[in-house]
Amino acid sequence: MVDFRGFRKIGLMEKTDSRLMCAQCHVEYNCNAGSQWSDGKKVGYDDQRTNHFPLTNAKGLLEHYRKLDFYDFKHAVTGARLIKLQHPEAETYAGSVHDRAGVQCHQCHMPKQKGKDGKVFSTHGVIRPKNHIKEACLGCHPKYTVEQKLYQIEAVQNYTKGKMRKAEYWLGQLIDTYTAAKRAGVAETVLAKAREKHEEAHVLWEYWTAENSDGFHNPDLARDSLTASIAASKEGVKVLKEAMEAQPAPAAK
Ligand code: HEC
Ligand code: HEC
Ligand code: HEC
Q1: Whose CA is nearest to atom 22 of ligand 1?
Q2: Whole-angstrom Cα distance, residue 68 to residue 92?
Q3: Which residue, 185, 159, 202, is CA-closest to 240?
Q4: Which pLDDT tens digit goes with each residue over 186-218?
Q5: Does 217 contact ligand 1 (Cβ within 6 A)?
């Protein structure tokens, strides 16, 4: 740790690790005012919680923010307490197949390239690997062609995007069913249960709208999390529908 002119402390690493370097920015953080989970009270910029880094992936975030006693906004229809995510690339990458194999961010995003003078350099304009597969992937995967690696990336991305659309469909169903149940006079305890399911389903889905690799950084985590989002929405729809069916029919006019 070095002290910078008496006002800032800077940590120095013994070994370069781009996973940590990129994680200075490519993470979920809270940098906004919000409200308290427990009692809905406002949390302003004088509170440490408006400058907060969970460093937790999709599966642990809801629990994390509940413990921190903070949420970003309330849903206009259900009143569910929701989290707004930002670019959690580092948390997603942590624990992935590539991460466990010791691969770091810069090896795909700042690959070695040959300059016009024939000299090899590491590109410092961080690149999109899809546009530079030869440099970003084939160095470590020499048995593959550019087409095969592109196919692998797009297969994961298309699958993940499909799951995201399905999660959105079920979130929509949950919100619409909530409206119908409320109109039908379903008990507050049931509505509260549905709100809880909305809170759960939301984080598990929204995370992937904010993560920028469309699942490539950790396909398993994306699949698990989006599947769990769909399941939570479906459970919410189920409790609401059951309660509506149990409601007495409206009196005939
Ligand atoms: C100081 C903060 C910061 C750090 C550190 C940082 N980034 Fe970024 N990165 C950003 C921001 C902000 C953007 C969006 C820029 C824009 O939209 O114009 C971005 C964009 C990107 C993009 C998208 C580029 C494109 O063409 O759309 C990639 C890929 C990326 N960063 C990778 C990395 C990698 C890998 C590292 C570590 C080697 C890293 N970044 C470190 C802030 C950072
Ligand atoms: C094994 C290769 C690989 C590693 C390692 C890797 N990424 Fe990526 N990353 C990709 C691919 C593939 C995409 C998909 C987007 C593309 O290629 O156009 C992507 C997408 C991104 C994007 C979005 C780019 C855009 O166009 O909007 C960001 C930001 C990013 N990665 C950051 C990181 C960070 C930070 C790390 C380390 C924690 C990391 N990546 C590690 C392969 C990798
Ligand atoms: C620094 C070396 C390195 C780079 C760069 C790299 N990989 Fe890998 N990749 C590995 C290793 C090591 C594994 C672990 C499994 C293995 O032995 O194949 C792996 C595994 C994979 C897997 C199998 C994942 C699974 O679930 O089994 C895919 C798919 C893959 N890489 C695609 C890519 C793509 C696409 C790129 C370029 C964007 C890329 N890799 C860049 C080293 C690398």
Answers
A1: 126
A2: 21
A3: 185
A4: 999 999 999 999 999 999 999 999 999 999 999
A5: no
